[in-house]
Design goal:
The protein has helices at 12-17, 30-38, 63-71, 121-128, 132-135, 164-180, and strands at 44-48, 60-62, 79-81, 90-91, 98-99, 111-114, 138-143, 149-154, 195-197, 210-214. The protein is an alpha+beta fold and 223 residues long. The strands form three sheets. It has a four-stranded antiparallel beta sheet with strand order 2-1-3-9. Strands 6-8-7-10 form a four-stranded antiparallel beta sheet, sandwiched between helices. It has a two-stranded antiparallel sheet with strand order 4-5. β7 and β8 form a beta hairpin.
């Protein structure tokens, strides 16, 4: 990872043009397309606002249900939990009460999130437009609406994670702490129930949260 050399003077179009999956649809269609590409029909997904209570049948539905809602013309978002949920409650991080969308509620550990809080949008575009995509198993890149790029990493191509202890050992310590944090990645992104921007959502700024790059190809950097 130390050998990654970012290129200069790139823009989003350069990344979009290099996407293995050609996104030849309107930005508003990103939601349904994204869900189809990233999840299975019976996966339980949280979609909503950060402060929303995770209620089964409301903010937590199957991928198939969310796609039907999106295709009906209803707006969903702006956030999505990066991993499928179990549908069962688990203790909150502070141990005060229970939740349906916390770190202890993950059913399948598939993705982790990379986001920078100390780089400009231009610097982030240059970073993801470099050779990093051939080194990290990037599954998708999402424009948050003009401020940042959210990268979903396919952790199943990095290591084995079957439970929260595996996550702490193999993802948080060996991946985030040892590899990503020195690169300036936001340390707050290292948990398994992290929320990310949902593509296809129109922000009040008039900009879409949109897909930039989609692939399931990559190779691991951990040994």
């Amino acid at each position: 990872m130390e050998k990654i050399i970012t290129q200069a003077n790139l823009d989003e179009v350069d990344i979009w043009d290099n996407s293995p999956i050609r996104m030849d649809w309107e930005p508003k269609e990103d939601t349904a397309r994204f869900l189809e590409l990233m999840f299975n029909p019976d996966d339980l997904l949280f979609i909503g606002q950060r402060e929303d209570k995770a209620i089964l049948g409301k903010h937590i539905r199957t991928q198939k249900e969310w796609i039907e809602i999106s295709k009906s013309g209803q707006t969903i978002g702006p956030l999505i939990c990066i991993n499928p949920l179990s549908g069962s409650p688990g203790p909150t991080k502070n141990g005060e009460g229970m939740t349906y969308r916390g770190d202890n509620c993950i059913n399948s550990f598939r993705h982790c999130l990379i986001e920078f809080d100390n780089k400009t949008m231009g610097e982030q575009i240059n970073f993801w437009g470099s050779d990093v995509i051939s080194i990290l198993p990037v599954k998708t890149l999402i424009d948050s609406g003009g401020k940042s790029i959210h990268a979903w990493i396919d952790i199943q191509k990095l290591t084995t994670v079957n439970n929260p202890d595996d996550w702490d050992r193999n993802i948080k310590i060996r991946f985030y702490d040892a590899i990503l944090k020195p690169l300036g990645v936001d340390a707050a992104c290292s948990n398994q129930s992290r929320l990310s921007r949902l593509p296809g959502y129109l922000r009040d700024t008039g900009k879409f949260q949109k897909l930039l790059w989609v692939s399931d190809v990559g190779k691991g950097v951990m040994r």
